[in-house]
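Re: Re: ligand-bound prediction request (bumping)

Still looking for help on this. To restate: I need the protein modeled with magnesium ion bound, output as structure tokens. Inputs repeated here so nobody has to scroll up.
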Amino acid sequence: MACVKRTKVAENFFGQLVIGPPGSGKTTYCGKIYKLYKEKLNREVAVINLDPANENMCYVPRIDIMSLITVEEAMGNLNLGPNGALMYCMEYLEENFDWLLNQLVLIKNSYLIFDMPGQVELYTHHISIRNICEKLQKLHYHFCCVHMVDSHYCSDPSKFISTLLLSLSTMMQIGLPHVNVLTKADLMKKNSDKLDFGIDFYTDVLDLDYLLQLLDDGPFTKKYQKLNAALVGLVQDYSLVCFIPLNVYSEKSLLNLKAAIDRANGYVYGSGEERNIQSLLSCAVGARTESERFDTDFM
Ligand SMILES: Nc1nc2c(ncn2[C@@H]2O[C@H](COP(=O)(O)OP(=O)(O)O)[C@@H](O)[C@H]2O)c(=O)[nH]1
Ligand SMILES: [Mg+2]
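Reply:
Sorry for the wait, this slipped through. Here it is.
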């Protein structure tokens, strides 16, 4: 008689944490990708707002931190400024983790999209969001960070090197799989004649020696040649940062990003959604699929 070993398979949950500086396009993206998943891809999906100062939600959140606490309340009750109040709200959420979890467990079989607050210090050195993610990971929530940065920062070498450092330090601090995104790629393409390099220079981040030359010649940064070399060297040594361009108004662009995110958080393996041999193979070697190769058609 065949001996069948029964093991209880834990339920897995998948999703993405949409992070990035204020105004980078997080909320707009959450609204658009929610619609795409739901209406075009038939994926059960829920958006969760964890930004306690979110003003322009273009979706109906399934869970909303603003019903627990808002930045305005924290400012008024504790006499804090906007940044301090936001930090407080995230610490309050960490203390009230059960408030979040009790609602999350009610959302069955849905892919989760978290619209996160924008202050960068929450991801570069504050600990609450990292702690919340760690707790959820232990409960079989498989997330990746979708880190949105405005492509406007490509317009100036010193802004671009800051962007690279921000992305790198966020990747280190949060410790989740990461997909870095250059948002508003439509505007980037429109203004590409004003950029120092071709668009793929900013997305692929392969050879920063050219950037170093510009920094060393810049009116402000030429004073700091050793520092410039050290910063560029740091980014190159880690060799972790590259970007996917996103024009949120283009379906092709959203699908291109979706493919990378599905691989980063493991959704492509763990869900019942049709698996694509090509993407599995390319994931195994860490490559991009043909359709994900840099393509300016959609920008
Ligand atoms: N042209 C263009 N504008 C965008 C894009 N994504 C977002 N925006 C605009 O950027 C602004 C800030 O977006 P929002 O989603 O509120 O940013 P958040 O603060 O990161 O949540 C809004 O006016 C959006 O319409 C894009 O891909 N292209
Ligand atoms: Mg927002």
